[in-house]
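Need fresh eyes. Consider my entry:
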Amino acid sequence: MRKIFYLLFIILFLNGCATTAKKFNTKKENCKQIYIYFTQSKNCLALNFQTYYEDKNEEYEKQHDLILNAISDKIFSNNITNEQGWKTYEDIIMDFRSSKDKAKYMTNAIYRLN
């Protein structure tokens, strides 16, 4: 009986984690559909990031904003296309979720973009 309880707890915990990531991806896709251009969707993406990753502190928000600005700058300077900007952002967020030291990962992502 105890094993069943632990198994049920783990399943519910993993489902909760997956739900947050899935909700964020859905909101991100909504931003992409509404604005099409990455540079116009920065506020939408920032708001969604704050909503789903507010559990730590404002440091992630500031770093996320810097990443959005760095990707937008690359698009404005024609270093990358709009689609490449979306792909870069998606890769960064996916790696952010799986990283153990999230603050360090965000800092490294900012340096890679600049």
